[in-house]
Specification:
The structure holds two protein chains of two kinds. Chain A is mainly alpha-helical. Helices cover 71% and strands 3% of the residues of chain A. Classes of the chains: A mainly alpha, B alpha+beta.
């Protein structure tokens, strides 16, 4: 029995990790924990274990990406629950819904084969979501990017991110469709820049940066008109400088990056607390529950990484970075071996999305690059972030399989 | 009491996380190693000249010629190409006493060897270019 659990299969190691996490949190929180929470947590562990097992049966594609993400999710939720129980329970529910959404996305994308041709639909969807954000939006932490529906609040930009990847893939996978339109690539660039501008107006700088990175990367790989790439980089520099001189909130971010100690009372407070926390932890951390992650503002979303470093050690932090690196590597591998061009660009876009987003926020909290508010995919607390990440994961899972196009299926019938 | 436990657990957590990462890397390594590279040293093969992603159908980069290699739209061929310019049975390459012969199988749009349409069986030389529809292959035989 013991021997079976300790076999070196990553699935079992993950199970062991989660089980130990639950035990430790139970001891830490003592009598405060109610039975329902324990039940949900144990249920989720079993669901993750089963999902990892089922995936090896139902798909011939990649088996590692889901394993990696469930590990990230587990590290994240242990930390979130330790910081704030109520949020931990909510996160537990979000993750359960996320896994359900992952499988639904997988089956929906697999059954319906018209995704290449819906470019206009994605465009309209993206603009509609932007309009909704501006009309019903709510300002939080300095950015208008939340919509409240009853008790739930959600961030439309998380969905638009995925729509952007779809727009780019459906454009570059079938350029013949756009032959009649002169300067089609310029129009595309205009559209993406309008997205970035709208995000900028919402003061959501991090997401704007992610959008730009995805666009530049896919344009760099697939655009035949190489001038456009230079133009794109040039425009970015110009807009960056303009933003820096015209808008105070951009300037503040920059200054508190260059020298946070000077502004430690206000703008530099978050970043200095984050640095203190990481330094406090050392290589092996303080131990769960023995640090003070609550000193950092918004610790459960943007600064979850610092809290993990403080209590679980820099080694766990490096582990998280390695997990993201393997994940992105798998994503690129999936893209390279995918034969269908649309799904290849889709896989590429999603890998870049996760890679860039995690880089921006991890670099931000360790003061390597200026800090912009973003969630760490799969680790941070947040309903819309978890859900959109799992949707993207489901799409990546589909891309890892051999795609039979409609013509293939028709001819097989002849 | 809890403090000792928490300190113990933090080491266990780190060990598990790293074991997890290494077991995944090991599995990926085995996966990559499994895709063994076929050695082309002393065998004749066809190499695709077109860029693979410029063709709107499934095709491989290399095809090893093992006694006989046929190309066509029908599923019984060794190379199945879903291209309307390719006939159901388009051409085949046959090996006979270490020589390779190209034969057109009455295809509608013909097979071209180094730019000339072929009508009968033609002996292949190393470096010949075979064209059918929009696909171009390089024949390689380094023996």
């Amino acid at each position: 029995m013991n021997k079976r659990i300790l076999t070196r299969s990553p699935r079992n190691l993950l199970f062991l990790f989660q089980a130990l996490g639950i035990i430790l949190l139970l001891i830490y929180k003592g009598k405060e924990v109610d039975r329902l929470t324990v039940g949900t947590a144990v249920g989720l562990v079993l669901v993750i274990y089963l999902s990892n097992y089922i995936l090896t049966r139902i798909t011939r594609g990649d088996h590692y990406i889901f394993l990696i993400t469930t590990m990230l999710v587990s590290i994240g939720i242990i930390m979130i629950y330790r910081i704030d129980e109520a949020l931990g329970i909510k996160q537990l529910i979000w993750i359960s819904i996320g896994i359900f959404i992952f499988f639904s996305t997988y089956f929906i994308i697999k059954k319906i084969r018209i995704w290449e041709n819906l470019t206009y639909f994605y465009l309209v969807g993206a603009y509609l979501l932007f309009i909704i954000t501006f009309v019903f939006g709510d300002r939080r932490h300095g950015a208008i990017n939340w919509i409240n529906i009853g008790q739930f609040s959600f961030q439309p930009a998380e969905i638009i991110k995925i729509l952007l990847v779809f727009i780019l893939s459906s454009y570059y996978s079938n350029k013949d469709r756009w032959k009649d339109i002169k300067y089609a690539s310029y129009y595309l660039m205009g559209i993406v820049y309008s997205f970035i501008l709208l995000l900028f107006l919402q003061k959501d700088l991090g997401t704007a940066l992610v959008f730009y990175a995805i666009f530049l990367a896919i344009q760099f790989i697939y655009e035949e008109d190489r001038k456009l790439i230079l133009l794109n980089i040039g425009l970015f520099l110009i807009f960056g400088l303009l933003g820096y001189t015209l808008f105070d909130h951009v300037k503040i971010r920059f200054q508190s990056w260059l020298n946070p100690w000077k502004y430690i009372e206000r703008q530099g407070y978050q970043i200095t607390q984050s640095l203190f926390a990481i330094a406090e932890g050392g290589f092996f951390g303080k131990g769960l529950g023995l640090g003070h992650p609550d000193f950092i503002p918004v610790v459960y979303t943007d600064f979850i990484f610092s809290a993990i470093c403080e209590e679980m050690g820099i080694f766990t932090g490096i582990g998280i970075i390695m997990l993201f690196m393997i994940f992105v590597y798998r994503g690129f591998k999936i893209a390279i071996s995918q034969g269908n061009k649309f799904y290849r660009i889709l896989a590429l876009g999603i890998s870049i999305l996760f890679g860039v987003q995690s880089f921006i926020i991890l670099g931000g909290v360790i003061k390597m690059i200026p800090l912009t508010g973003l969630t760490l995919p799969f680790v941070s607390y947040g309903g819309s972030s978890i859900l959109s990440s799992f949707i993207a994961l489901g799409i990546l899972q589909i891309c890892s399989e051999e795609i039979k196009t409609k013509e293939d299926l028709d001819e097989a019938r002849d | 009491m809890y403090n000792i436990l928490a300190i113990l657990f933090k080491y266990i957590f780190i060990i598990i996380i790293y074991l997890f990462i290494f077991s995944i890397i090991r599995l990926i390594y085995l996966d990559i190693k499994g895709m063994e590279v076929i050695s082309f040293d002393d065998r004749a093969y066809l190499k695709l000249i077109n860029r693979k992603d410029s063709l709107p159908f499934k095709i491989e980069e290399y095809y090893i010629i093992d006694e006989v290699l046929s190309l066509g739209r029908h599923a019984d061929n060794h190379i199945v190409v879903k291209d309307p310019y390719i006939s159901k049975e388009h051409f085949q390459i046959v090996e006979d006493e270490n020589e390779y012969y190209l034969e057109d199988l009455d295809s509608a749009n013909g097979t071209y060897l180094n730019g000339d349409k072929i009508y009968d069986i033609v002996k292949l030389q190393d470096g010949d270019i075979i064209k059918a529809g929009q696909i171009e292959f390089l024949f390689v035989n380094r023996k």
